[in-house]
Write a structure and sequence with these properties.
CATH architecture of one domain: 2-Layer Sandwich
Strand content: 15-25%
Helix content: 25-40%
Oligomer: single chain
CATH class of one domain: Alpha Beta
Distance between the termini: 26 Å
Number of helices: 5
Strand order of the largest sheet: 8-1-2-10-9
Shape: globular
């Protein structure tokens, strides 16, 4: 709910992902300057693109509890063609879904250029048990590996496991942001139809909005981030918080 034209604190809650974030929205917004603005800071733009991509990926993985992390590699000389990679990875996930009985299969994946010069390989996350033997059979182009995220404190649960899997994938997404060998619109891919639902909230203060979100979630958040603690922050006051699983 927006509060007319008054200044307010906005917040987008993603209940399934157990997190949300927002910022202060002032009454008046500066108008774009005429005759062009300051020169674009390419490095800053790339950092911001990487941050947005990591956030979206984390929410997707968390909402769908993608807590198993896997890798697909190519045998022989490897693959050096991004379009070929996307075609073959698409075939892999369609084949995997068929082999699992055709039920919905949320997943997320990102490519990486092998540091040893062997071309491209793929890292992906899923949220259900899939045997390595089945992945080997469906992939059929090289070596594979899959593991359940387990290096967490006892009792962490599937939500925290999925957040850790997202952190692993995010490393490759960040590397891809500034890599001209990666198509601009394909830093990472996810299965369609599984995006987390967004619940917009607003209030007269950060505390009011977090209280509304906590009421919706049934508990207080366990993690906080505020722009006031971020050195060099240039945007409006912003905040983020997460709830335990």
């Amino acid at each position: 709910m927006r509060l007319g034209h008054q200044a307010y604190w906005g917040f987008n809650l993603y209940p399934d992902a157990g997190e949300g974030g927002g910022c202060f929205v002032p009454t008046l917004r500066p108008r774009p300057s005429e005759g062009g603005g300051p020169a674009v800071d390419v490095e800053r733009s790339q950092l911001e693109a990487a941050r947005r991509a990591r956030s979206k990926l984390r929410r997707y993985c968390a909402a769908n509890r993608l807590n198993r992390f896997a890798t697909l590699t190519y045998a022989g000389e490897g693959c050096f063609d991004q379009q070929q990679l996307r075609v073959e990875v698409g075939e892999f996930f369609r084949g995997l879904r068929r082999a699992l009985g055709g039920s919905p299969l949320p997943y997320a994946w990102a490519s990486e250029w092998h540091p040893g010069g062997h071309g491209l390989h793929v890292h992906f996350a899923v949220g259900r048990y899939v045997s390595k033997a089945l992945i080997d059979d469906v992939w059929g182009r090289g070596l594979t590996h899959i593991k359940l995220i387990g290096d967490l404190p006892v009792g962490s649960g599937a939500l925290e496991e999925a957040r850790r899997a997202a952190a692993y994938l995010a490393k490759y997404v960040s590397k891809n942001i500034g890599d001209e060998r990666v198509p601009r619109l394909h830093r990472y891919e996810v299965a369609q139809g599984f995006q987390p639902v967004k619940v917009p909230l607003s209030g007269e203060s950060e505390e009011v909005v977090i209280a509304l979100a906590s009421e919706r979630m049934g508990s207080e958040p366990v993690r906080f981030w505020r722009s006031a603690d971020a050195e060099g922050w240039r945007g409006p006051p912003a905040y983020w918080c997460a709830w335990a699983g």
